[in-house]
Amino acid sequence: MFVAPRMVGHFGMVDITAARFAVFGAIAGLAVFARPAAVRWPNGRQALTALGLSVLGFSGYYLLLAFGIEAAGTEVPSLIIGTIPVWMMLLGRPAGLHLRALLPGLVLTGAGIALMIWGAWSAQHGAGEGNGARFGWGIALALCAMASWTVYGLLNAAWLQRHTELNAADWANWLGIATGLGALLLWVVAGSDMATLQARPDGTLFIWIALASGIGSSWLGTILWNVASQRLSASLCGQLIVSETLFALLYSFIWDGRWPQATEWVAALLFVLGILASIKAHR
């Protein structure tokens, strides 16, 4: 997901976002018809909720993130998104968990992110002021994406815990259909026409990335996330996102064909230690 905008950079961010979530919607739509007719479709309130959450957690979130990655690279946006577990713990922590217990984790995580941003900013700024300004804009977009998904994670967990009768897979499918419809609208309004898409290089890779991210990261990932959200508190469930950040960094280094620099090793270590400290405080 994080490396995709760099792998198919010839395609616009709107096209990448729309393709991924159109696949998500198509798979979810097919899965809906495998369910009994009595539980196949949401009621009006469920449909409106799914539509709103689909913007926060999928199409709007990923569009912001994709533009952020295009401007600032993969590493720093990955770590910014990686702070979502901390924000979910702070905002969704259970009663009785004091902020002072979370302080060690917050300090470690903040230090790791600051170190990574400093290293990346130095590299970008050294290439010229224009690149430095572009890098700053990428960080701002990544911060907006982080806020969008944090709100989604908290609201989605609260909704599922209030409506225990909902099947996690059904809710993922309804979210997928809402997201797919939004993606098609986004493509019609701001995407490239078919002739332009067909003329761009790496078309086959673009299709494979859309299929892999739409089915794996979006559809299957949402089902598993909904199951976790029903069984764990929002603050603890949010800690699962640390794996996404670590894999994003790993894929970025593989794509770049390089080992992490010393500052990147230290930043990633601080980040992991911060999350572990937060989990310990939660327990």
Characterise this structure.
The protein has 283 residues and is mainly alpha-helical. Helices cover 81% and strands 0% of the residues. It has 13 helices and no strands. It has helices at 4-7, 13-32, 44-72, 75-81, 84-92, 99-126, 129-162, 168-190, 194-199, 203-231, 234-237, 242-256, 262-282. The longest helix is centred in the middle third of the chain and has 34 residues, at 129-162. The relative contact order is 0.22. The model has no long low-confidence stretch (mean pLDDT 85).
Quick overview of this protein structure:
The protein has helices at residues 4-7, 13-32, 44-72, 75-81, 84-92, 99-126, 129-162, 168-190, 194-199, 203-231, 234-237, 242-256, 262-282. It is mostly helical and 283 residues long.
Mean pLDDT: 85
Contiguous runs where pLDDT drops below 50 for at least 5 residues: none
Radius of gyration: 19 Å
Main β-sheet description: none
Give, in order, the helices and strands. Answer: HHHHHHHHHHHHH
Distance between the termini: 31 Å
Given helix and strand content, the structural type is: mainly alpha
What's the shape?
Answer: flat
Give the total of beta strands. 0
Number of helical segments? 13
Strand content: under 5%
Assembly state (oligomeric): single chain
- Determine the fraction of residues in helical runs and give it as a percent range: over 70%
Features:
single chain, 283 residues, mainly alpha, 13 helices, flat
Set out the fold topology.
Layout: H1 4-7, H2 13-32, H3 44-72, H4 75-81, H5 84-92, H6 99-126, H7 129-162, H8 168-190, H9 194-199, H10 203-231, H11 234-237, H12 242-256, H13 262-282
Helix pairs in contact: 2-3, 2-8, 2-10, 3-7, 3-8, 4-6, 4-7, 4-12, 5-7, 6-7, 6-13, 7-10, 8-10
